[in-house]
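ESCALATION

Customer reports they have been waiting on this structure for their group meeting. Please prioritize. Original submission:
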Amino acid sequence: MTDLRYEWKFFLSPAEAEALQRRLANVFAYDAHSGPAGYRVCSLYFDTPGLDAYRQKLDGQQNREKFRARVYNGDMGFIRLERKMRWDGLIQKQTQTVDADFVRAALAGVPAPLGCADALTRRLGLAQRLWGLAPRVIVAYHRVVFVAPPDVRISFDNGITASARLADFLRPGGAGFPVLDKPMTVMEIKYGHFLPGAVQALVAGVRAQAQSVSKYALCMGKVMEVGAYVQGG
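Update from on-call: job pushed to the front of the queue and completed.
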């Protein structure tokens, strides 16, 4: 379980994102897995048949959680199961490595086992049985990450796409469709107890206001808008 952290999100134009990344690169390091080229993130989000997590986000509910499976650069040898929790503006994550067979079972409607040693797997298995939690949408994007001491992460996500073809999660390179009407970058700033002054100074020129942005909600909304989502499917 990670420590509780603050999270700010901003919508930036491509020009704003590029300028800010240049400033950050002069002062801070890239994440060890990122580098200037970044990497592709693909997530398979779980929700109830009534899309409770999606609707809680739209309703502005402060205390909520969501489950997702995530791969990086299409590497099916390293899949992470994540539970992201939000408590009054603070976030916390619980993670566990799973394999492709685990995801295949979820896609087939088979709940995770309750007798396993991992607490996160048991939690998901319970949610699957009690509330019908199941994969609902694929969210993909390209990410570049900077890190700053003591525990700051600044990420830039662009090219956000959605797909309701859930089996494509296990097929790297599966195509989705854009969810934003124009090219935009989502910048996220995550930190623990305080945001260092050096980071505040570098982002002070951002004209955009912090927003409650959820890539899952954006993508779920888009697949329903275009009629790609099948209720309970």
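Sent to customer with the following note: The beta strands are 5-12, 29-30, 39-47, 64-72, 79-87, 90-98, 134-148, 152-163, 177-178, 185-191.
Escalation resolved.
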